[in-house]
Each structure stands twice: as C-alpha cells, then as structure tokens.
Amino acid sequence: MKGVDEWLKQQSGDKKQAFNDYLDRIDLAHKDLARATKWCQKWKRKLAAKTKGTVVTTPFSEIKLESAKHVWKGRVPTRMLTCVMGDPGEGKTTIVCSLAAQATRGQLAGDDAGQPVGVCICSAEDSPAHTLGPRLAVAGADMTRVHLMEFRDQNQFTRGVLFPDDCAAIRTRMEATGSKILIVDPLVAHLPPELNSWRDQDIRRALDAMKRLAEELDAAIIFLSHLNKNSSAPNPLYRLSNSIAISAAARSILWAAQDPTDESAKVLVHIKANVAEKAPTLRYCIESHLLADNIKTSKIVWAGEAPAITADDLMQQPSDKHEPLGAGDEAKLWLEGIIGPEGKEASFILKEAEKVGIAKRTLDRAKKALGVKPQFHGKSHHWLWVLPSKTKGSEGRNLVSQPVGNLALKDKKLLITSII
What we know:
Rossmann fold, 12 helices, eleven-stranded mixed sheet
C-alpha cells in the first residue's frame, strides 16, 4: 500500500471517487490508507468549493413587496418560523394539536380560514397512538388531513426527520399531502448528531434550511422548544433553549406558562412578533377527556384574552423549576448538548470546553454525573464520549408520512395500518 496517496493524486476524478467510496466501507488501520483518506477528504473539499456558485445581487426594484400572511391571525405567519416555548407540562404539544385540528377543518382564524389544509407532525417525544392521535381526535381534527412524518430506511428502520439533512424529502411529502403547516416537536430532537445545539452556527444551519423550506412551500413551520434553566435571564428570549440563534430566527414566539393570576389556568403570551403587532395574551385550561375504548387524553379549552398579562409578569414569577445555575449544572447541560445522541470525539469536547471556560475538574464531574462512557471508534481511531442512553441511529433513505387516522388509538403497541 506504499505510496497510495501519491498514486491517487495522478488519477481521474472517477477513480478518486471510487476509491473514496471504497474507504467509506472499510475499517482503516494502515498508515498509507489513513493518509490517502485525508487526501480524499481534501479533494472533496476542493471539489465542493468549485461547485459552490457565485455571489449575486438583486435590486429591490425587482422584488415584489408583500404583506405577511398568517395561518393563525397575528400569531403564526406563513412562510416563516414560529416557536412555541415553555416548560414541560404547560401544554405546548396540546396547543399545537388544537391548532392542527382547527386547520384541517378550515376553522383556524387566519388567511386560510374556510379552507381545510393538511398538517404534518414530526414528533420525537410523544407516542402517535397513545398521545398525539387521541389529542387530535378529541380536538376534532380531520384525521385524514393530519400526517405523522418520519424517515424510514431500506430495512424499515424509522427515525425522526432531521434538519437540514432531510429538507428535500420533507418538501416532497408536504406537497404530496397538501400540507400547509409543519409541526416539529421539539426542535433539538430533529437536529443531526453532528450539529451542536449550543453553537449558534450549527443552529443557524438548521433554521436557515427550515426557513427556506417554509418559503418554498408557502407554509408555516411551528417548532416547539423547552426553556433553559437560566431563570435569572433579563429577557424572556434568553430563556429559549441553549442558543440565541433560535429566538433570532423565529419570526413569532409564543410562551406557554402558568397563569400568574390564576392557579387553575395557563396563558399563551406573544413575546416576539416581527411581521405583525403582538397579539393579546390568551388564557387556557387543559381538560382531561375519555375517548372510546377507555382512551384517556386531554384537550385545550380556550378561556378568552388576558391582555394585562405580559412576558414581564411571567419573568417575575417565583419558580421552583428553575433555580439559578451553578457551574456544575451549566457544565452538565453543556456537555449533554455537545455530545448529542451519537457521541462526540473526546479531543473535540476538551477543546470546546476550554473555549467556553469550563475547567477540566468541572468537566470531569459533569462527565461522571451524566454517566458518560468513553468508546473507541476503530474507523476514525478516536475516543468518543457517549451518553448512557445513546442508541445508534440508522441512515434513512425514504421519508414517509401517514394519516394519524390510520393509527390504532389503543393502549397497546402502535399499529400502522397503512402508509401513504
């Protein structure tokens, strides 16, 4: 194998590509192969640079000016990103199920009112048969118009869709189902493992792709996000997940929270609106319901406007859920985010920790608290840090969506009765 990297330099593009494909299928151990692999990676970067295109300009005189449209008047704009944020248990998913149900009947107050539209839901946390389906059913959804979206590979293994990786396939399924609303629950669970939810650059990559997708489909994309633990943040936008890029990209942000004036109610506060005036705060309750076959579920009951309640009122609420973070807590959150579901190279983690000012001892304590396990990756010859709950994913090749009406809503194993 001596000199294989020099041999590669003299070959045509086809041979280089064939050799690179071969390397992707074998475990590397030989030094010459390792050098050849590095050369192939360098060659691929040069090739990509040649095909990037060029910078263009467009005079604003050629750009048609338009007023923003909304699928939910004032709150959820079309062709843009909307975020619904809040702590667990405040009804974020139940709210979007209610909106989806109204949209499928043409009863959602907005520019599409009177016209039933399709809705696609990407969910990584809730069972379609036990949670999502029943909530949609009790909200009165047209179950043939609301679709569960996921990725399925040639071995019939399914995973959640990923942004930006799966945008082309998502667009195809949205068009095929006539969907004008895409719900992503939650955002961070639909990012590729190599994207770090703490890094603004990584988050912007995913959100930029989502934004382009919304524009191309003339659709609204609603993503859900949990609050971070920084209860001392001076601005509610800083409570949104781990990266400020999320609040920067969303054109509308709604905060679901406990009503500070009524322990029996909750409120949906409009804290950011770029293309409309902030809509009045809405009060709501979450009521339990029993469907046929003894299926327990819940629904949103809207209780009118509460315009006097603002984001400032929510920020001032005493909270047992979020105490100010110590260095150890921050390190654990940071480490969990940077490792992700697929693990991360130990050397990379150590360098990034140094950049953000996390001491080695603090990082070691966070590693122990999270139960992080080092694993040797033979192909890359690197040690990885892996979370104990890590499950190895599989690259999918086919995006599928199915009407929620085709899912058996029973307290047993999910039964898929048909696939679109």
